[in-house]
Design goal:
Order of helices and strands: HHEHEHEHEEHHEEHEEHEHEHH
Distance between the termini: 20 Å
CATH class of the largest domain: Alpha Beta
Largest sheet: 8 strands, mixed
Strand content: 15-25%
């Protein structure tokens, strides 16, 4: 969850202060108002950033007395700051391990609040059509066992495509002849083609809203573990997209300031919008929006609400 520090916003505040000072105005009062807001600091994962940004913006509209801030520093750095108690909450695409949890004296609540798909985007100019990659093929590409696009195994899976005699360049940066993994929403915004992947059931599945939801539903059908550390390695189901990741909010088991605990709960309750529950933003799904994810519980029964009431 995050109040993103926008350059334009900072510049606007600076300009306002300058105008007030030049007019003999109330710059001091403006500073006092800002300083009186309840600060809530967070840091962590970049993966759910778009969703958290929308939640924070909606919350801040009606709560000028709360000052949320969030640094998108990555899951590992977010966990380190959380353990060091340099933040009020963290966010991570990997659930904290037992040895990490043991380092937090105030206790830890791990809340899975969102999930999303990781896609394989590629750049093959002149290749029109759907690129299909069987399980053993896309694994071997990133293991370096397949080095050319016209490899017989890739050609066999794509008989209608005119695959070039180019070396495969597995990398995150998409350049000519390359393939790389990234967030679904990022690939979609850039208009990059993404591969159709074979899932655990043997079906070839494109990444979209339905296949992402199917993967989450298949995992949730087994029930949430008591510590909420649900992992999605290779989800079951013929309609499930094979690469899906949950993302967790990291909360302390105890907050010395009840106001912060209340604000965190209120922000989450306001954030999820049931009207968009089945229209995920940039391929991100709110775990509290989809009844199949939360096991049919009401909003008040969501684990985040429960953890902050304890």
């Amino acid at each position: 969850m995050k109040r993103f520090v926008r350059t334009a916003k900072v510049a606007a505040l600076a300009l306002m202060s300058a105008v007030l000072i030049s007019c003999g105005g109330e710059a001091a009062d403006e500073r006092t108002l800002s300083e009186s807001a309840l600060p809530i600091k967070g840091a962590g994962a970049t993966f759910p950033e778009p969703l958290y940004q929308s939640w924070i913006a909606r919350y801040e509209e009606g709560h000028p007395d709360v000052d949320f801030s969030y640094e998108s520093v990555g899951s590992g750095a977010g966990i380190k700051r959380f353990i060091a108690e340099k933040v009020d909450f963290g966010a991570s695409d990997a659930a904290m391990k037992d040895d990490e949890i043991a380092q937090v004296e105030r206790g830890v609540k791990l809340i899975p609040v969102t999930a999303g798909m990781v896609v394989l985007a590629y750049n093959l100019p002149g290749v029109a059509g759907e690129l299909k990659l069987p399980r053993d093929v896309y694994v071997d590409i990133f293991l370096g066992k397949l080095s050319r696009w016209d490899d017989p195994r890739i050609v066999a899976a794509n008989p209608r495509l005119n695959l070039p005699a180019l070396p495969i360049q597995p990398k995150v940066k998409i350049s000519y002849g390359s393939i790389g993994y990234m967030k679904y929403g990022f690939a979609r915004r850039l208009g990059l083609p993404v591969a159709t992947l074979q899932n655990r059931a043997g079906a070839l599945v494109r990444p979209d809203a339905d296949s992402g939801r199917a993967a989450l539903a298949a995992a949730a059908a087994k029930g949430l573990p008591s510590d909420l550390r649900l992992f999605l390695p290779d989800p079951e189901g013929p309609e499930s997209y094979p690469i899906v990741s949950l993302s967790w909010i990291l909360l302390y088991g105890r907050y010395d300031e009840p106001e912060k605990a209340a604000a965190l709960k209120e922000c989450h309750d306001l954030g999820p919008d049931r009207r968009s529950a089945h229209r995920p933003r940039d391929g991100l799904y709110s775990a509290s929006q989809d009844d199949r994810i939360k096991g049919g519980r009401s909003r008040s029964g969501h684990p985040l609400a429960k953890s902050l009431q304890q």
